[in-house]
Fold this protein.
Amino acid sequence: MNLNLLSNFPPEYKPNEAQQYILSEMSKALEQKHRFIIIQAPTASGKSMISKTLANLSEEPNTRYVQLVQENKIFHPGVYNPDNYPQWGCAILTSTKSLQDQYGRLFSDGSVSKGKVNYECVADPTLNCQHGYCKVSSRQKDKCIKEHKCPYFNALNTALINKCAFYSYSMYGCLPPHVKAR
């Protein structure tokens, strides 16, 4: 395998010397089939660009997965087995919401998905989705999801089918394993 990660660098940006070096070293590590690569670099060194370069290299989701997300069935146990499909996509994890927002601003082709507390309930705008009517009425939840009105589930579903999604560690950790196969 001969990976040229530089050719997948976000096209609207130009890699600096340090990023070129990191991508070169990552290519070597990937060619040697290293499973984990850790990059320790200072703030503002361009780690976001490195992450997005890997996301650009990844595949699109398969049609079965997209269909299950759109039908709101992806979370049903046993419906989707990622072992039966090629791996795809990239999940970029951050430690803060502000970093998720930064990724969203930098890369408009990616999707940000945050926890329920970050979205306003459409049934009652004085509540967030964490404390909205969904907590007491599964009918309301089903209706909002089916009609694509719930901003939380809309953001989550968009991130689930986007080949590049930006999650917090805790949000990503709450996803079932078959949904995290990226």
Observations:
- The first helix runs from residue 17 to 31.
